[in-house]
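Case study.
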Amino acid sequence: MTSRTGTSKAGTGSSVRGVPERRPEVPYRFERTHDTAAIRANHEDLEPGEESGVTVSVAGRVMLRRVQGKLAFAELHDSSGAVQLFCLAAVTADYEGFCRLSLGDWVGATGEVVRTKRGELSVKVTGWELLAEARRGFGDKWHGISDVDTRYRQRYVDLWVNEGSRRTFQLRSRLISLMRRWLEDRGFVEVETPVFQLVAGGALARPFVTHHNALDLDLNLRIATELHLKRLVVGGFEKVFEIGRTFRNEGLSPRHNPEFTMLEAYQAYADYGDMMALTEALVAHLATELCGTTQVSYGGRALDLTPPWRRATLSELVEEHAGVHVGVDVPIDELRRVAGEHEVHLEEGWGPGKLVLEIYEKTTEAQLWGPVFVCDYPQEVSPLARPHRSKPGLVERFEAIVAGRELANAFSELVDPDDQRARFEEQALARAHGDEEAMTVDEDYLRALEYGLPPTGGLGVGVDRLVMLLADVHHIRDALLFPTLRPEA
RNA sequence: GCGCCUCUAGCUCAACGGCAGAGCAACGGACUCUUAAUCCGCAGGUUCAGGGUUCGAAUCCCUGGGGGCGCACCA
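After joint prediction, the assembly is written out as follows.
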C-alpha cells in the first residue's frame, strides 16, 4: 500500500488528515467469502491455540489496532459484527503496511480462521488489501460521539461509532419488513399513492407546497395517504395499505419531524372495533418478533403490550384524570370554564368538540401510559370519520395511546357522500376564517364516494413512533436516519 | 416565538478570577498472543465570535451565533 506520508495539516481546524502525496490505489471489487458473523457461527467450537485449517476472506473497517512488535492485532467490523485480525511479521504480506493502517480504514483480508492462545477467534492474515482509506479520523475509540449535532449530521460516523444507533436502525428495517409481511399474510395489498397532490387532504395539517414547471401548477406534498387509499377501496381493493413518507409543514419536536413514515391500512366491511383488534395484534406481533416479548419497557418503565388493550371513551378518561365531566352534550360555557381552569389555550370559534379535545389533550393524553384505545371523538374534530352508531355528536374513532403519546388513529370511515360534503364545507369555512390546517373540498374524492364506499375501517400508525417505542429511544431523531435539521452554520 | 442550560485540542472531558490541562486519536520509537494492549518520546489551542468589567477573563457582564432541554405551536 501507499505509505501514509501526509501529516496532520496544522490550522485546518478539522480532523481531516493530510492528503497523501500519492493516493492509494484501491481495487474495484473484493471477493469476500464470509461475513464475520458466519465465521463466528462456523468456528464456535475452536479451542484456544487451535487452527481450523479453513481459509476465509473478510472485509470491513479496522476499528481497533494493537501492534506489538512482530505481532499485530486489529478488530475488523462489518455489518454482521466483528472479528479479530491476527498478523505476524513472518506470515502477513506487507506487515509494515498493515501496522500503519488508521482506525476507520476499510480492508479486505484473507487467512486461516484460528483461535489465539488467549481465546480470541481470529483470521490469521496472510494477504490483505486496503479497500478505502479513512482520511478523516473516527475520534475517541470508546467514548464514541456524544455531540448530538454531529451524530445527526454525520450519521455515517454515528453508525460506526455508536452500537446503539446501529441497533435502532436495524430494528427499524426489520420492523417495516415484518409489518409488511404481516399485513400481506392477512390479504392486504400494498400500493403507492401520489406524494404530489392538488388537494392535500386526509388530515388536519399544513402542507409543503411545490411547483411543477411544465404544468405551471402548485402542488402539495401529501399530509396523509387516506383519501387515495379509500378511493382504492371504492375501486375494489378490499384490503389495502401503504407504508409511506408523509410531510407536514409544522414544528420539530421530540415526537415530530416534518417528514415521517406512516402506515395506513383500510379494510372493507370492517369498523373501528376491527381496527382495534388489528392494531393490537400487529403491535404485539412486532414486539414479540423484535423484543422477544410483549412485556417491554420504555424509558425504564414497564409497558405491557399484550392484547387485549384497554378500551375506554375519551370522556371516561378525562373524568379519570382530570376529575371533570366533559362531552359534546355539556354546555359550551361550562366547557370554556373547565378549559380555563386547566389553562387550555382558547380560540374564537371553537365549538364544544374542539374544546373537549383540547381539554383531553391538556389534562389526560400524556398521563396515559397505556396501551389504551381512546374511543369516540367529537365529530367536530373528525371530518372523515363516520358518526357513532349510538352516540350523537360523536364519531367512531379511536387513538391508540402508548407511553403517553399517540401511536395510531383509526375510524369507521365516513361513507356517505352527502355527509362528507357537508363536513368538507364546514372545514372550508374554518379555513376561510383563518384555520390553515382545515381541509378543503376534494371534489374527486366526493365523486368516488358517490360510486359507493362500502363500510370500511381505516387505520393510521406512526411508524417512527412505533420504532421509538420498540427500540426504547426517546427522540424521533433517534428513529430517523437523516432527520430534518437546520442547515449547518 | 418564550424561558433555562450549554459551547475548552480531532474525540471525551478538566481547570470556574491568577502559567489552558488529562485520557484517547495523530506523529516518532520499543515490544512474538493482544483485548480500551503496555511503555518511552513528541506535537497539538483565536477556550464559538465581538464588546465590556478587572492589575489580570476560558471563568464575571452584554450582544450575536451554534447546540440541548422545557413551554407554546403541532392529525
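Observations recorded in class. The CA atoms of residues 244 and 261 of chain A lie 5 Å apart. The first helix of chain A runs from residue 36 to 42. We will return to this complex in the next lecture.
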